[in-house]
Amino acid sequence: DAMVIQNPRYQVTQFGKPVTLSCSQTLNHNVMYWYQQKSSQAPKLLFHYYDKDFNNEADTPDNFQSRRPNTSFCFLDIRSPGLGDAAMYLCATSRITGGQFFGPGTRLTVL
Amino acid sequence: GIQVEQSPPDLILQEGANSTLRCNFSDSVNNLQWFHQNPWGQLINLFYIPSGTKQNGRLSATTVATERYSLLYISSSQTTDSGVYFCAGGSGGSNYKLTFGKGTLLTVNP
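Predict the joint structure of the above. Result:
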């Protein structure tokens, strides 16, 4: 089945220790997104790739970076995680038109 | 950007009851989606419905684009329908980017 896969499902890191989350897709969609979702809140878009073009939301902290080495993979790098970065991180994909499809998410804990 | 309002914020039902969730938009949208977030946190795409009506089993959705609202109907609710329902919209040339509402927390009791 075509799908969006995220690894790991759970990630524990220490304050200030860099962490990388990964997302892969078999849908061959040209747009990939990273969202941050905190408890009882709506998902908040951090950035997206339209093909290779990177688009950062204005209020996304510099601490967050992303890489998309090819159509199938996208990575979220958090350079120096703080306690406030503990959240669920959701990856999604879409075509230019049509629905967005989400992976299962990575729950990040910062100690 | 557009503002998305969902109502009600919380809804408690007995199994078998029907419900209607509403989503209002501050401006015209040409991309509108409904999602269900399950207890494990995954967002499941229910409908892509910028206009018109669609049905999928016990769920259906209607979007009236000219009046900037969408409705999600759940009939004969089951406990597995519990979770948070989000609507999200996009507009203009970058309509693939979505703005989410705050969600409706649905609890279906046996």
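The interface with chain B takes residues 31, 33, 37, 41-43, 45, 48, 50, 88, 90, 92, 94-105, 107 of chain A (CB under 8 Å).
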